Structures are given as structure tokens and as C-alpha cells.
């Protein structure tokens, strides 16, 4: 048998072995895999329910001027005594 043919068969055999390993990993649950390897299983994080969608996007309303505060805003109140006025700090 030519050398290139042996190399090709060797490559195909390795690919088959790798594929069988992947198939075993797909069929195996994380708990079974941890038990087989002999390591502790790290529990999954609990799923946090998503907040309901608010199409209004209003977060709050200013008690002084009535300006609706949105999640993303490109403007502020122009009155200096309003709590919505940007406070500049150094």
C-alpha cells in the first residue's frame, strides 16, 4: 500500500475517533461527565426573568418641571434650580 494511502487512512481513523468522542460528549449530561471524570459539578446559575418591555422608555418624571426622564436622553432642563439640571463637578 502506498505511503500516501496509509496517511489518508490514518487521518480518516483519527477523524472517526474524534467524531466518536464528540458524539459521546453530546449524549452525556454535565452531571454524568463530572461523575465519570471524578470532579465536582459546578451548578448552573439560576435564570433571571427578563423585565417586561416598556415601549414608553420613561424612567421617571422630575418633580420640579415635569420633564420625563428617558433611558437615553440628549437634553436636560435649562433651569438652574431644577434637579434635572446637569451638576458639573471637578
How far do the termini sit from each other?
81 Å
Low-confidence stretches: none
* Count of runs of 4 or more consecutive helical residues: 2
Helix content: 25-40%
Strand order of the largest sheet: 1-2
Mean pLDDT: 78
Rg calc: 31 Å
Largest sheet: 2 strands, antiparallel
Backbone shape: elongated
What is the helix/strand order? Answer: HHEE
Count of the separate structural domains: 2
Structural class: mainly alpha
Strand content: 5-15%
Descriptive terms for the model:
90 residues; elongated; 2 helices; 2 domains
Can you walk through the features of this model?
This protein has 90 residues and is mainly alpha-helical. 37% of the residues lie in helices and 8% in strands. A two-stranded antiparallel sheet has the order 1-2. A hairpin with a 6-residue loop joins strand 1 (58-61) and strand 2. The mean pLDDT is 78.
Secondary structure layout plus pairing:
Elements: H1 3-27, H2 30-37, E1 58-61, E2 68-70
Antiparallel strand pairs: 1-2
Overview in brief:
The protein has 90 residues and is mainly alpha-helical.
Amino acid at each position: 500500500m502506498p505511503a500516501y494511502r496509509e496517511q489518508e487512512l490514518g487521518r480518516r481513523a483519527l477523524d472517526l475517533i474524534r467524531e466518536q468522542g464528540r458524539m459521546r460528549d453530546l449524549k452525556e449530561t454535565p452531571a454524568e461527565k463530572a461523575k465519570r471524570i471524578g470532579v465536582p459539578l459546578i451548578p448552573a446559575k439560576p435564570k433571571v426573568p427578563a423585565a417586561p418591555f416598556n415601549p414608553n422608555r420613561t424612567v421617571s418624571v422630575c418633580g420640579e418641571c415635569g420633564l420625563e426622564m428617558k433611558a437615553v436622553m440628549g437634553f436636560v432642563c435649562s433651569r438652574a434650580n431644577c434637579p434635572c439640571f446637569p451638576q458639573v463637578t471637578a
